[in-house]
Each structure stands twice: as C-alpha cells, then as structure tokens.
Amino acid sequence: MDPIRLGLVLHPSRDAAGVLGTIVAWAAARDARLYVRDTDRHRAPSTVTALPAADLASCCDAFVSIGGDGTMLGALRLTVDDPKPVLGVHLGRLGFLVEVEPPDLPAALDRLAARDVTLEPHSCLVLDVCGAEAVAFNDVALARQPGTGFVSAVLAVDGQRYGHYRCDALVVSTPTGSTAYSYAAGGPLVSPAAQVVVVTPSAPMAGISRSVVLSPDETIRLELRPGAARVAVEVDGRVIRHIGAEEVVGVRYRRDAGFVVRLDPRRHRERNQLKLSLLDLPLLPEQLRELLPEQLREQLNRRELPPPR
C-alpha cells in the first residue's frame, strides 16, 4: 500500500503548532506525505508541501482539519468536487463535527492510514445567488443589516410560491446544520441520517412563522420582494455578498458531498447529545466547571495549560 497523502486544514487564527508537530512526526515515521494550502505556508514546517487550495483535493487521499466545526466545514467545502475523508482534531470549544482530541491523534492517524474508520456522509446545499455558485454544509442564511430594515422574501418550491417572510433572518439548513443557526432560530433537530432541507425564520414578524421541512429533490427559490431592504447572504456563517430588492437566491440539495471520519460513531453521538443538552442550560462554561468535583477541575486546568516553549 502506498503511503497516505494528507491535506492539512488549519484554523485561521488558533495556534496549531503542537498538533502540526504531532502530525509531522507521525508522517516522518511512516513516509506519509503532507500538504497544506499555500496561504498557510508560513504556519507549517518545511517538510509540508504547499499547494493552491483548488489542487489539494486531487493530490490528497484524506484531510486532517485542525480547529473546530468551522474549520471542518471549510475542509469539506475544499473537497466538495472530489470528496475525501476528513478527520477533525479539536481545538475549538463546542464542536459537533470534530471528534479527535490532540492526545488521541497518533492512534487516530494510524486507523485512518489503515482505512479502519467509518465514513459519515454529509449533504450540502448548492447556492445560486445572482449567477454565482457557493456551497454550504451547514446552512445558507439571508440576514438583515442593522438599521436597513428586515428580510422580506417569498419562498418558492419547484416554481410554486409557498408564502412570504418578514423576519430578522431566513435560514436554510442541511440535517448537519440543524444544530447550528437553524436550532438557535427555533428550528427542529434533524437526524444526520435524514435527507431533508429545513427553512426556518429567525424572529418572524409576518408571513410564515414556523420551520418548513422540504424534500431534497425540491428546488428552492428565495425571492426578495419589491422594496425589500438589502440583506447579507451567509454561507456557513461567512458573508459572501449582499443582495437587494427582487434579487433571487436559488438552493438545491446535493447528497454525499463530503465524508467525515468517525472512529467511534456511537460514542460521538452520545457526546453530541450531551452537548445539545448543555446548550439549553442558562449557565456559562466557567459556571458549569464550578459544579465539577475539585479533582476533575484540577485535571481540566492542567490539560489547558500551554506547553512549555
């Protein structure tokens, strides 16, 4: 078997040096090849090859995302035209996609290289906004800009108008994205095994006020009404452009657009269930920590101390 070729996707601002060091040492012992986006060239050791982002998927067998859920979503978007397994290493705070903690990374890489993992398929939304295409693995949102008015749009499905919205934001989500913006807006939790699209208004004031659940085979159009204020178009939380009255956003569903590496799917589901229950508690993370036994608090504090330099 040829040595594995891994693409590394780094969190844009968090320090990933420790995790990179672990991966580089593991790769050197196994003659594996490592690649990174050329924009991250200055953050990676010299043994890691830099490539244009558009070329990474075709050159790599799998990806390692180092960060939180946002970094994972970015890695999935990089591979959408040539889906490859993505292993998530946790540097974030409350991730639902990322599974591996840094101390467990060498064993996880061994399993990835041996193909001893489960691949969890993820759908995406393909967005057409004024002729430009974008991809979202969590959600697409039309969001109001403070001081300019509200989102005023009509929902059309397969060419038939369903109704209109007047709200702070209008969120179209995948099953994966049902735990993100859609959930915060009051949308339902959707099983990752389901194949549906959820449209949820945030702070609705008129028109449709509940979530609409649609088939993945239906085409969706969000049409800004005449006289509507300009709104921001967000893809997985990133603003990609602004649109105004009578402009249209088209959304369609694409199955199996990305693959997330799972080492223990059942344990991961159980941990996510716990994380979701914590989201509904009116306590800050540091307040929750104070409820833990003193010995466990000390262990957590030791783990979070920065390594000596």
TrEMBL record:
Residue numbers binding NAD(+): D69, G70, N138, D139, R166, D168, A203
Subcellular location, principal: cytoplasm
SUPFAM superfamilies: NAD kinase/diacylglycerol kinase-like
Protein EC: 2.7.1.23
Keywords from the named record: ATP-binding, Cytoplasm, Kinase, NAD, NADP, Nucleotide-binding, Transferase
Cell location: Cytoplasm
Co-factor requirement: a divalent metal cation
Keyword check for Zinc: no
Transmembrane segments: none
Name of the molecule in the record: NAD kinase
